[in-house]
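## Example record

The block below lists the input lines for one assembly entry, exactly as stored, with component labels intact.
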Amino acid sequence: MTGALDRGVDAAAYAARANPVAKLAVGLSIAVAMVLSLDPVTAGTALLLEVVALPWCGLSPVALARRSWVALVAALAAGVGTALFGSGDPQAAAAVTARILAVTLPGVVLLATTDPTDLADALAQVLRLPHRFVLAALAATRLLGVLSDEWAVLGLARRARGLGGGGPLGRLRDHLGRILALLVVAVRRATVLATAMEARGFGAATRRTWARPSRLHPSDAVVAGYGLLVAVAATAAGVAAGTWHLVLT
Amino acid sequence: MTRSSGWPGAVGVAARGWGWRYATRRAWAVRGVDLDVAPGERVLLLGSSGSGKSTLLAGLAGLLDPGEGADDGTGEEEGSLHLDGVPARVARRRAVAGGAARTGLLLQDPLAQTVLARCGDDVAFGLENHAVPTVEIWPRVEAAMRGVAFPYPTAHPTDQLSGGERQRLALAGVIALRPGLLLLDEPSAMLDEPGTRMLREQVAAVLAATGATCVLVEHRLAGWIDLVDRVVVLDRTGGIAADGPPVTVFAAHGAALAAGGVWVPGHEPGRGAGPPRTPPATAPPGDGEMLLQARGLTATRRARARAGLPPVVAGIDVTVAAGRALCVLGDNGTGKSTLALTLAGLERPVAGEVVAGPRLAAGLRSPSPHRWRPRELVSRIGTVFQDPEHQIVATTVAAEIAVGPRRAGVPAADVEARVEELLGRMRLEHVARANPFTLSGGEQRRLSVAAVLAARPRVLVLDEPTFGQDARTWDALVALLRELIAAGHGVVAVTHDAPLAGVLGDAVLRLGSEHPDRGREEPRVGAA
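Predicted structure tokens for the full assembly:
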């Protein structure tokens, strides 16, 4: 939300500085391949090819671990769950784990290396999504940071009023009240923000120019192409190994 | 300043019987306005709260649209409101298509009008909407940022700005569009004194360089008054109550305006409150008794600690005593609020301690307020937050006042009596059944104080209680605080408001890195 990326992220890395749309394309290609078949060879190959490309993604091992540990835990838990309570087949368990990681890893890289402003620019200019919606959503993400501060203040204010404490039920009721208060604050702020945006000409004309042109470069084709390659190679490996079968049928 | 050659001319305003009613309200927000403003004129728009000043500015900005059908737009319009002979709404649409705004609007809330994450992008936002060619955008962004003496580069993140810096950034975003009419809607109401001064200087520079017409709404007139050459007062019942040069209007209507809450020069509030408080000849009950004490206190906000940032206040030794006021002064970002919240038992001390006096902590397991249960805290230390809306927890004004005493275990009949008494005392009877969120700013402030007092805490901690308040509410607050102090309460007031500190007197704690006396208690009138 700060506009600047975290430490541990090298924004100048080859894949990191690709157009956000190219990074989205990578995630989408791989996700399609992973949805089509659930087998250890396809998912494992995809994951392997993703890990091979990591050095070009600009994420230090620490930054990667910090952002992907939730996915890692979820993937392992799903795998263990499948092995214990599902088919009991270790191959199926490995497939589930590898598949979750293969789908989430491109997403982790996209989020870690992409500034929300650049993403909005790319969505509106490259993908030609309606700029009103994209920019309104972008302004809303900035407001989210403000609201997280408000959330903390609301908690203190409620304690000062004598609320909270006392059993889980009381805490639940207090939480609901706090959420309601946050909603009211959010609507107020959003109304003012909308006025400020309209006063600067937002939403009055269909044509607008862009201070930060977002264009596709040859390197974006390389990044998107690699995503496609991962999807095709993984599927081919699965088919060759005979483990690939269409989930949909 | 932006090259004046590129600046389209100043805009003239003509309103004829103009009025606006929001679709969600039954009453007209503003009605019967007949007003001519010549190009280049600078008008101060006054009127009591609820007289429709902000609505008139929104109308001038072309943001009010009655739409085609009955349920189409956002409200109902009567009469006409023209900019250079063209309806304001049409003027806005044409301006957006033509690449230069006719009007620029600066609002009150600094946090809510930053659109994008980087300063330069935020200024560029309006230019993009006006379809200014990309190659022209950045030179104009940089010129506009220079024009308001903005101290950071274009890539600086907006979420690290102070309120005053945000307002200047918003001003840059407005002037980058070269508007012929500058509309300022209480732009400094939420700023501290240095922030207000800077903003005022930049507005003056912009007006001098561009010759733009200006319509300004402000409660605190000091400083702004020199910028304007005409004062127009809106009548609450519709139409215009007064119109003329500042000197003439204030001479004829000064007292009436001050009574309506405007900070009129020569009619500042607090005059009736008498000289700075001195300890009375007869000591108040429990005089000087220690209520709260901070020893070697280091404090930070939870969010700050989580982000790995260092604490903002450190090594504070201070005592809150019965019948005394402690004013915590300092600019934005010096940790005044953090200190207050920690003293009030809401934030946990990072190092050092806050202990309550034996009588305040009587019957509790711990002398540390931050360990107390909420229901134990509410009847001992009351905290009034800077934004009254943060502490609203009930759906009616009467219920809001009842929350505190009820949580503290006060019998129902007594709760009712306290609610009645406070409704009367704080002039809130007429809104007793209203939703607190629908009240005016002054009413909300009075409610927030009433709701805290209802639980009868011995210690009262107030964070910027006079922020953005009109002169009438200011007077009422000061009178109430002095009364509480005289009755033996301990008061901690965090404030930028030097006059407030002046009349509360007693001890002053000044925070701020530029002060060598950081964290030291400054003895003042009657300090213990």
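Residues 20-121+217-241 of chain A form one domain. The CA atoms of residues 109 and 168 of chain A lie 38 Å apart.
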